[in-house]
Amino acid sequence: MSSPEYAQVEKPFLDQLQALGWAHLEGDTGVPYLTERESFRQFVFLRALRGSFLQASLSPEGQRPGKHRSSRSRQFTTFSARSTGT
User: Rounded to two decimals, what is the model's pTM?
Assistant: First the structure.
């Protein structure tokens, strides 16, 4: 049984995002890998981010960028969330 908050707020918002082209991954609060994470402290979905960057950098013909592009444009830095102790 779903809560009124889910039925009246979360579900309509998820439906709206999906209609705009966003993907929704049904998760489980105890299983982070169902949402493509290593842990729930990970808030950036690196695989999706890399795929989006690659897709955005393709030429109109669908070719990958040439060697003239810096390899830095394909490097990612990750940061882990830390508790501030406050």
Answer: 0.48
